[in-house]
């Protein structure tokens, strides 16, 4: 089925998120049903509305006399999209009202025309921005349960975290040092009209002032660079691969960190990229092929490593484990709807199971880098502390240019002009 209205498509998308589906699972297919020219607007409306979700719904609720029925949550989503577009995009107000109201027909709910028109006109007539009326704007960037948790954990940083959660992430690149060097590639980008920065970008990173289509990036197809968040690039430096080592990336898809390890140290004895499904492994293979890198591929559950990974056979392991993703909400804004406080315990069980499964594979003296894209202490320090109590290991002291030292590692906090929120802990196995 082909869809005509990007606003109706956006409303259907958010409705599916409200029903519990992840954008990663279906949004690409949803976009493909739209005319190519209309896809950018649909994507902006979906991601923008979800980034602003706690604020937007608080505004809409002020205009409604009673809640909208569950079966009509697509209408609710359409109204939220209209509020976002009025407040944040340059679309003329009359066009927003007209197109949003007409989208009720494509949703097959023409009865909602008056409701949608009434709410949007009421909002348009307001002589102030609702955000100016908020006593604690940061609270309206996050779900209540998450705001309360993060405000307690990071009282001095909660505003920064909230601001980042509402912003588009900057586009960052990782320069493939096996094909070129960062200064040369920065100069090449500048010649192509881009503005780049190396500030707080590690050894291989560049940050673009404005995003570019990868097809427009010089020599991207030739493997000169990859798109990768600045914080994610820290994993390579922290694991510090050495010549002749066998290293496992245990939860490798889409392969950015595995490829970075090979770019840093091409003389590894073996880099094993492992993930749980064939589709995920395909993404790793595509990245390796473009960059001209070779890995050993394994499809397996990191909590139950396959028999071909022998005990004490690895020098180092990278474990970028499944988590709440609370540090990457700007990239995955559906998390603001999907994630609930009760989900965290199940993630910690999975994280500890992965650590337990991987630990026997390390040689004496070997090291394991535990990584999450979570900001929550329960998934970070607490997991490492629990694992440390049950196993003879040493937690190494690590430090990065940005972020905070924690009891068991280092927490990078998301920043609106910087990297995502990632946690790192480097664990060493005793030599004897």
Describe how the helices and strands are arranged.
Blueprint: H1 6-18, H2 23-32, H3 39-51, H4 53-63, H5 73-88, H6 93-106, H7 113-125, H8 130-133, H9 144-153, H10 158-165, E1 171-175, H11 182-191, E2 196-197, E3 205-208, E4 225-227, H12 234-239, E5 246-249, H13 256-264, E6 270-275, H14 278-291, E7 296-299, E8 314-320, H15 335-338, H16 344-358, E9 362-372, H17 381-390, E10 394-395, E11 404-405, E12 410-412, E13 422-428
Parallel strand pairs: 5-6, 5-8, 6-7, 8-9
Antiparallel strand pairs: 1-3, 1-4, 2-3, 9-13, 10-13, 11-12, 12-13
Helix pairs in contact: 1-3, 1-5, 3-5, 4-5, 5-6, 5-7, 6-7, 16-17
CATH class of the largest domain: Alpha Beta
Oligomer: single chain
Over all CA atoms, what is the radius of gyration?
23 Å
**CATH-assigned homologous superfamily of the largest domain:** Vaccinia Virus protein VP39
Largest sheet: 9 strands, mixed
CATH topology annotation of the largest domain: Rossmann fold
Please name the CATH architecture of the largest domain: 3-Layer(aba) Sandwich
Give a count of the beta strands, DSSP E runs of length 2 or more. Answer: 13
Span between termini: 63 Å
Helix content: 40-55%
Number of helix segments? 17
Give the overall shape. Answer: globular
Unreliable runs: none
Mean pLDDT: 94
Helix-strand string: HHHHHHHHHHEHEEEHEHEHEEHHEHEEEE
Strand content: 5-15%
Total discrete domains:
3
